[in-house]
């Protein structure tokens, strides 16, 4: 199994430097990962260093709480797209989901999808904060709003990707959209299990270890 092709090589630490992001991009190209995933401030830098390669630039939106105004998420998306981002990983309006305000959740996602102007939107539902019923409703909202992926976690919440959650999301979305497992993925065995359960993308900072590659390029983070 070519695990590298599933991996979004991720660095979202607030203390990340320009050198760290350049290193991240070099590693992603070297190991032929699907994408790098960075904070919005580094969208243009990552896109520049990935230009002419097959590695995509993914940028987080409304991260990590999802609690900002929809209009702000839309502005983030538009700026990221201007900076040549290929994919946007947005966090849902979690408090609206917990309150059962699914029209609000869906509209929040839909506005981001429209602002993305064709760039792929991955929707982080933060599974560690949701009941199974809420996960089902969130998955339906993601599909209804027209996003390309449903994603489990930010990696900053109370739990990460689990096989049980991937199986549940697969039951909801089927093959209509992709499923990104993220949060706490550290080993090849974990990755294989999540893919077998239905994950089509993996968000992790341990991509080199998982893919069985060599040590990170110099200037590691």
UniProtKB/TrEMBL annotation:
Question: Where in the cell is the protein located?
Answer: Cytoplasm
Top-level EC class as recorded in UniProt: lyase
Quote one Gene Ontology molecular function term: deoxyribose-phosphate aldolase activity
Q: Which UniProt keywords apply?
A: Cytoplasm, Lyase, Schiff base
Principal place where this protein is found?
Answer: cytoplasm
Q: Where is the active site?
A: 89 (proton donor/acceptor), 151 (schiff-base intermediate with acetaldehyde), 180 (proton donor/acceptor)
Per the UniProt record, one Pfam family is DeoC
User: InterPro entries of this UniProt entry?
Assistant: Aldolase_TIM (IPR013785), DeoC (IPR011343), DeoC/FbaB/LacD_aldolase (IPR002915), DeoC_typeI (IPR028581)
Give GO BP annotations, semicolon-separated. Answer: 2-deoxyribose 1-phosphate catabolic process; carbohydrate catabolic process; deoxyribonucleotide catabolic process
Q: Name one GO cellular component term.
A: cytoplasm
Q: Which HAMAP family match?
A: DeoC_type1
Extract the NCBIfam families matched here: deoC
Its name, as the record gives it, is: Deoxyribose-phosphate aldolase
Q: Which organism is it from?
A: Sporomusa termitida
Gene expressing this chain: deoC
């Amino acid at each position: 199994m070519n695990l590298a092709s599933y991996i979004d090589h991720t660095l979202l630490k607030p203390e990340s430097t320009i050198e760290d992001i350049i290193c991240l991009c070099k590693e992603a190209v070297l190991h032929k990962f699907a994408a790098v995933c960075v904070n919005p401030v580094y969208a243009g830098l990552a896109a520049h260093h990935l230009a002419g390669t097959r590695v995509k630039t993914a940028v987080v939106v409304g991260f990590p709480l999802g609690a900002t105004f929809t209009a702000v998420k839309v502005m983030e998306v538009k700026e990221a797209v201007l900076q040549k981002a290929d994919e946007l990983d947005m966090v849902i309006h979690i408090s609206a989901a917990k309150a059962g305000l699914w029209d609000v959740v869906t509209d929040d996602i839909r506005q981001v999808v429209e602002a993305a102007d064709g760039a792929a939107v991955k929707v982080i539902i933060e599974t560690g904060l949701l009941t199974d019923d809420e996960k089902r409703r969130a998955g339906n909202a993601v599909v209804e709003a027209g996003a390309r992926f449903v994603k489990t976690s930010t990696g900053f919440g109370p739990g990460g990707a689990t096989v049980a959650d991937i199986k549940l999301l697969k039951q909801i979305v089927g093959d209509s959209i992709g499923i990104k497992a993220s949060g706490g993925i550290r080993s090849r065995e974990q990755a294989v299990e999540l893919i077998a359960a239905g994950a089509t993308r993996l968000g992790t900072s341990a991509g080199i270890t998982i893919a069985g590659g060599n040590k990170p390029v110099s200037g590691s983070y």
